[in-house]
Specification:
By secondary structure, this protein is α+β, with helices and mostly antiparallel strands. The protein is built from 4 helices and 10 strands, in the order E-E-E-E-E-H-E-E-H-E-E-E-H-H. The strands form 2 sheets. Strands 4, 5, 6, 7, 8, 9 and 10 form a 7-stranded mixed sheet that branches. The protein has a 3-stranded antiparallel sheet with strand order 1-2-3, with no helix packed on it. It is elongated. The N and C termini lie far apart (51 Å).
């Protein structure tokens, strides 16, 4: 087991006891930037019987993501950055995505995190931010859920160049494009990030 300082180590559930789940045991498998653990338990089936299960879980905290839309010009602001896992599986690796980040445990609400991420990644200072919904990314293997937000912006809201924090190894390209062009990229495979697809389709449905 490799340990790196600062990684979360949550080997107990973030919830009260569940009468339909018994004998829970957890084992830490890996603790680095994220935590990887194994859970063993007995779960009550729908027919009343009990079933033993073992699941391996990636605990990476929770996320926040935002769609920035200029309603006058009908443009959106996305960011492009290198994603090693996507590169590993055969994609280009430099993915177009929503501004997003891991929710800082010190923040009272995910909105605090997303406002900070918008400023760091895009250089924009946004006004009112609307919370929309919360979705799990891959609930069969990953604890992460993402809180989605929407905010309007104007060209005059730019206060910096953006690009992320060099101290955190970020190398982010800010990309502004028409919403129709972003939707076309989604349909053609030019956008392959799940959270970004969700919000672009949400924007199209609100037209």
């Amino acid at each position: 087991m490799t340990t790196e300082t600062g990684a979360p180590e949550r080997l107990s559930p973030d919830r009260p006891a569940d009468p339909d789940l018994a004998g829970l045991e957890t084992e830490l498998v890996w603790k680095g930037y994220f935590t990887f653990f194994r859970g063993r338990y007995r779960r009550r089936r729908r027919d009343g019987g009990w079933q033993e299960e073992t699941r391996e879980v990636l605990d990476r905290g929770h996320g926040a993501a935002i769609l920035l839309h200029d309603p006058e010009r009908d443009t959106v602001v996305l960011v492009r950055q290198f994603r090693f896992p996507a590169w590993w599986t055969g994609d280009d690796g430099h993915l177009l995505e929503l501004p997003a980040g891991i929710v800082d445990p010190s923040d009272a609400h995910a909105e605090e995190t997303i406002r900070r991420e918008v400023a760091e990644e895009t250089g924009l200072r946004v006004g009112p931010v609307t919370p929309l919904f919360r979705l799990y990314a891959t609930p069969g293997a990953n604890t992460e859920h993402i809180s989605f937000f929407h905010a309007s912006y104007r060209a005059a809201d730019r206060i910096a160049d953006g690009g992320g924090l060099a101290t955190e190894g970020e190398d982010i390209e800010v990309v502004e494009l028409p919403l129709d062009e972003a939707l076309a990229l989604l349909e053609s495979g030019g956008i392959v990030d799940q959270k970004t697809a969700v919000m672009l389709l949400w924007a199209r449905s609100r037209r």
